[in-house]
Specification:
Layout: E1 5-9, E2 12-13, H1 20-35, E3 43-46, H2 48-56, H3 65-80, E4 83-84, E5 90-91, E6 93-99, E7 109-113, H4 119-126, H5 129-146, H6 152-166, H7 176-194, H8 202-216, H9 220-228, E8 237-243, E9 254-259, E10 271-276, H10 281-285, E11 291-292, H11 305-308, H12 310-327, E12 331-338, E13 341-349, H13 354-366, H14 372-378, E14 391-392, H15 394-402, E15 406-409, E16 411-414, E17 417-423, H16 426-432, E18 438-442, H17 450-455, E19 458-461, H18 469-477, E20 481-483, E21 488-491, E22 496-499, E23 505-506, E24 510-514, E25 519-522, E26 527-528, H19 531-538, H20 547-562, E27 566-570, H21 574-582, E28 588-592, H22 600-611, H23 615-639, E29 644-648, H24 662-672, H25 676-686, H26 698-703, H27 705-724, E30 730-735, H28 741-762, E31 769-774, H29 777-781, H30 783-786, E32 792-795, H31 797-805, H32 816-821, H33 838-852, E33 857-860, H34 868-876, E34 881-884, H35 889-907
Parallel strand pairs: 4-5, 17-18, 18-19, 19-20, 27-28, 27-34, 28-29, 29-30, 30-31, 31-32, 32-33, 33-34
Antiparallel strand pairs: 1-2, 1-3, 3-8, 6-7, 6-8, 9-10, 9-12, 10-11, 12-13, 14-26, 15-25, 16-20, 17-24, 21-22, 22-23, 24-25
Helix pairs in contact: 4-5, 5-7, 6-7, 13-14, 13-20, 14-20, 20-35, 21-23, 22-23, 23-27, 24-25, 27-28, 34-35
Bound molecules: adenosine-5'-diphosphate (ADP) and magnesium ion (2 copies).
One magnesium ion binds near residues 651, 736, 798 and 799.
Length: about 900
């Protein structure tokens, strides 16, 4: 083991910013600030390795730690000219937690350690009574809470009582005499609670605090926070022991926090709050209302720091500029002013919204602080989705929440805000949408609801997780969506949405959902489309009027210059194709043809086709479907002029198209001129036990070749017709669910034969490209053979995940969350690719495929194509492109560039 304790002070530190892993973020920041000449009270950091040791050795320390701590404490004593536990010039310290990743407020910190009945008198003599006893009562309260496990409330109760007795409003006004009495009360609380006196030995205090801070790594709050933020449990926290400076020494003292730029909007303005005559925890605890630091920020005539302490404020400005220039990023800082002198106690890269992230990155490029590639690197790819989502008016939302209009919460599945009238089924949604926005409210959704989902402004389900049908489709469509709002009840028979303690909502009532935060709110909150959408899709705003759009656009163009991975889209309609193209998609990676079958005038013919008594009947219905498909393809080819369009032939089990309820069966029977009993029998006959593993994909194309023939004909007729109009077309026919070479050979032969026939009939040359999806593990294993027939592969990672794990995607919601919680799986494998298993099939399939066909183009078209972590992985597999839903195209462009930078760095 190396060094366990790292000193910082007097302009020099043993650590630096790069040592976050062992010093924690706070320790690394303190060291770095010390090194660049920013005033920081001296102290030392006990490394995270000691935390690891602590948990590996029944909560004990490495033997040399005691000596190291004593040695460094002596250096601190020398630096500030005080002695720990001294009766006349006592050194006081804070003992602060600080992990590698910031976990705000999750772990513990203790201030004013080193005070006891003796040193408090020395402190009073050197400064003043009020300050000394204020510090002591704070220390007893914090130490008792964190180390001795006595509830805060017990002390706070006495503090408030004291405030009332003294007839004052704030703690800062309580007179010294009363604080002195309060200390005695506090000590008696401790005696009563633990049967012992409050520890007077400062070394006991110190080691008690160090143990408690290491212990706080495993408090319930911290554990939960780590799980939610995917922070590994074995990182551990560091402990910082630092000499105290006092913001509670009088009116020329203060404490505060600030951001070097606005973390919500990114605006380039110093932004923060402070409290005069107070200590750090007061600001965070919200006990007193803090004041604005700058004049510009002081709206209601409050006294800003700039006004009350102009000298210190100017110093603070110098410091923040120095920090920003040094870190070349927005910082979140904590400072304390002791008798007019400024000290920095923390700096870290500030958390920010997607809006702020993009603006700060672009501004910093303009300011010459960073290069475009840095800007691309530091905006979290998923965050830019926020720039596309409609938003609620902030004030209105607060008003609604305060006014008891919150009905419940669910999982935020599709970011953005939507308000509309409640519709309980898809047909109603479509009809009602003609008169204004609709929120489709369902227990869960299924493929027949697509049209209703499309016409809805927002979608709410009471069941399902983040990969449920509703969530996936809503994200794809860019619809605000909340799923799994389990406290709400949808009662279809009564037509009611019920929430405990509220009047039930009926169809047509107004409802608002915030898909960014998951709140379901009664009534209508105003929304507006994002500026990016207004400029790019609606054309209702000019680029020069929207800084948000310009920055979005610039950032993505920088990303395009860096990335080598192509980005295509999954789109089934000309409209989606257009959206994706405007978002920068370079073609379609997956055009599902079955969605085209659900439209009103078509579904009947599809049903006729499926139910036909013989091939002749099927061919007749198919020939009626052909013009519809051709029309769709024409529209898509036009939208995507010049770029490749991968079209998947029919894939889902046929029963998905069949009438299910008795009502539907009798309607369809009437429309088709069949008897109800006869139709019901046919439907039952087509029923499958396990449709996902049943008669679907190329198995349909082999048993009913006329279906694939019709589809290929529609594709190439459309392609020839569009080409005739002078528009370049690049159709790519994709065979789904291939597991054997023969399947691919038979279906490919059919496709090529029909395509050539059409080309001959139309007299127009169009390239014929046929490839396959790789979504059955067997296909990945025999990829070398398949690649001799296929011209491209597209990994269908949804099915591939489903089949590799043997998890039914639609049913996995009942156990996957528990699996993630118990750490059986690191994350939901339908959201982010399982690199270890499924990913191995992608890598191996690609390598084997290219071993026999070096020109093989390889892409991915599952949900994973829009997930940044998965994209990073796909880059390492040397794929040619990823394909994702239209609204995720910007995310994928950015993530692909980040993947490239990481890959280059890794490869050296
Ligand atoms: P957290 O991680 O919860 O922010 P910190 O360790 O940063 O906890 O401590 C909270 C606050 O306590 C700091 O922002 C600062 O105001 C105050 N504080 C910590 N150490 C000192 C110190 N040595 N002198 C004065 N104030 C301190
Ligand atoms: Mg802090
Ligand atoms: Mg599939």
């Amino acid at each position: 083991m190396g060094q366990y304790v790292f000193y910082f002070g007097d302009g020099h530190a043993e650590g630096n910013a790069k040592m976050k892993n062992i010093l924690g973020g706070k320790g690394a920041g303190l060291a770095e600030m010390t090194n660049i000449g920013i005033p920081v009270p001296p102290g030392f950091t006990i490394s995270t390795e000691v935390c690891t040791y602590f948990y590996a050795h029944e909560k004990s320390y490495p033997p040399e730690l005691k000596r190291d701590v004593e040695h460094n404490l002596a250096r601190v004593e020398k630096s500030v000219g005080r002695k720990f536990g001294d009766a006349t010039r006592p050194l006081l310290v804070s003992v602060r937690s600080g992990a590698r990743a910031s976990m705000p407020g999750m772990m513990d910190t203790i201030l004013n350690l080193g005070l006891n009945d003796q040193s408090v008198r020395a402190l009073a003599k050197s400064a003043n009574d009020r300050f000394a006893y204020d510090s002591y009562r704070r220390f007893i309260q914090m130490y008792s809470d964190v180390v001795l496990g006595i509830e805060r409330e017990k002390f706070e109760h006495e503090l408030f009582a004291m405030r009332d007795r003294a007839g004052v409003k704030t703690d800062a006004e309580i007179p010294a005499r009363d604080l002195c009495a309060l200390v005695e009360t506090y000590k008696s609380i401790v005696r009563k609670e633990i049967g012992k006196d409050f520890p007077q030995d400062v070394n006991d205090q110190l080691w008690g605090a160090i143990g408690a801070v290491f212990g706080s790594w495993n408090n319930q709050r911290a554990i939960t926070y780590r799980r939610l933020n995917r922070i590994p449990d074995d990182w551990g926290t560091a402990v910082n022991v630092q000499s105290m400076v006092f913001g509670n020494m009088g009116d020329d003292s203060a404490t505060g926090v600030a951001f070097t730029r606005n973390p919500a909007t990114g605006e380039r303005r110093f932004f923060g709050e402070y409290l005069p005559n107070a200590q750090g925890e007061d600001v965070v605890a919200g006990i007193r209302t803090p004041l604005p630091i700058s004049k510009a920020q002081a709206a209601g005539g409050e006294k800003s720091l700039e006004e009350t302490m102009p000298g210190v404020y100017a110093q603070l400005e110098d410091v923040y500029k120095k920090l920003e220039n040094h870190y070349r990023d927005m910082q979140d800082i904590e400072f304390t002013i002791e008798s007019g002198k400024l000290y920095l106690l923390q700096t870290r890269t500030g958390k920010r919204t997607g809006f702020a992230a993009v603006k700060i990155a672009c501004d910093m490029v303009d300011e010459g602080l960073i290069k475009p590639r840095d800007a691309v690197e530091r905006v979290e790819a998923n965050q830019i989705i926020q720039l596309l989502a409609p938003v609620f008016d902030g004030q209105e939302k607060q008003k609604a929440l305060k006014g008891d209009r919150l009905l419940g919460r669910g999982l935020p599945a599709g970011p953005g805000a939507a308000a509309g009238r409640v519709a309980f089924n898809a047909d109603h949604a479509v009809a009602m949408a003609k008169d204004g926005p609709v929120i489709l409210v369902r227990v869960e959704t299924s493929p027949e609801d697509i049209a209703g989902m499309h016409s809805a402004a927002g979608i709410l389900t009471t069941r399902g997780g983040l990969t449920s049908h509703a969530a996936v489709v809503a994200r794809g469509m860019g619809r605000p969506c909340i799923v799994g709002a389990g406290s709400l009840r949808v009662d279809y028979s009564r037509g009611e949405l019920r929430a405990e303690g509220h009047e039930p909502l009926e169809e047509g009532d107004w409802l608002s959902i915030d898909g960014t935060s998951g709140e379901v709110i009664a009534g209508q909150l105003k929304t507006r489309p994002s500026e990016v959408i207004q400029v790019l899709l609606e054309g209702t705003m000019k680029p020069e009027d929207s800084e948000v759009f310009r920055n979005f656009d610039r950032l993505l163009k920088w990303a395009d210059e860096i990335r080598t991975l192509g980005v295509r889209t999954n789109a089934d309609t000309p409209k989606d194709a257009r959206v994706a193209r405007l978002f920068g998609a370079e073609g379609i990676g997956l055009c599902r043809t079955e969605h085209m079958f659900f439209a009103e005038e078509r579904i009947l013919r599809v049903r006729e086709m499926i139910l036909a008594r013989d091939e002749e009947g099927r061919r007749k219905s198919l020939s009626e479907l052909l013009p519809f498909q051709r029309g769709d393809f024409e529209g898509i080819f036009r939208e995507l002029a010049g770029t490749p369009v991968t079209i998947r032939l029919l894939d889902p089990p046929l029963h998905e198209f069949l009438p299910q309820t008795e009502g539907q069966i009798s309607t369809v029977a009437r429309d088709m001129g069949w008897g109800v009993a006869e139709l019901r029998a046919k439907v039952n006959q087509l029923h499958e036990m396990n449709p996902m593993l049943g008669h679907r994909g190329c198995r349909l194309g082999i048993t009913y070749p006329e279906i694939y023939e019709m589809q290929v004909r529609a594709i190439f007729e459309a392609a020839c017709d569009v080409k005739k109009q002078g528009i370049a077309v690049h159709p790519e026919v994709m065979i789904p669910l291939v597991g054997t070479l023969r399947e691919l050979q038979i279906t490919t032969e059919t496709a090529r034969r029909v395509a050539q026939q059409v080309i001959k009939e139309r007299g127009v040359e169009v390239p014929v490209v046929v490839g396959t999806m790789i979504e059955i593990p067997r296909a990945a294993l025999i990829a070398d053979k398949l690649a001799e027939v296929a011209e491209f592969f597209s990994f269908g990672t949804n099915d591939l995940t489903q089949m590799t794990f043997g998890y039914s995607r639609d049913d996995a919601g009942s156990f996957l969350p528990a699996y993630v919680e118990k750490k059986i799986l690191p994350k939901d494998p339908f959201e982010s690719i399982d690199q270890e298993g499924v990913g191995q099939l992608v890598r191996l399939g690609t390598e084997r495929g290219r071993s026999t066909n070096k020109n093989l183009k390889v892409g991915v078209c599952g949900e994973h194509g829009g997930d940044p972590d998965s994209i990073r992985f796909f880059r390492t597999c040397n794929l040619d492109y990823v394909s994702c839903s239209p609204y995720r195209v910007p995310v994928a462009r950015l993530a692909a560039a980040q993947a490239e930078l990481e890959f280059q760095e890794y490869e050296g």
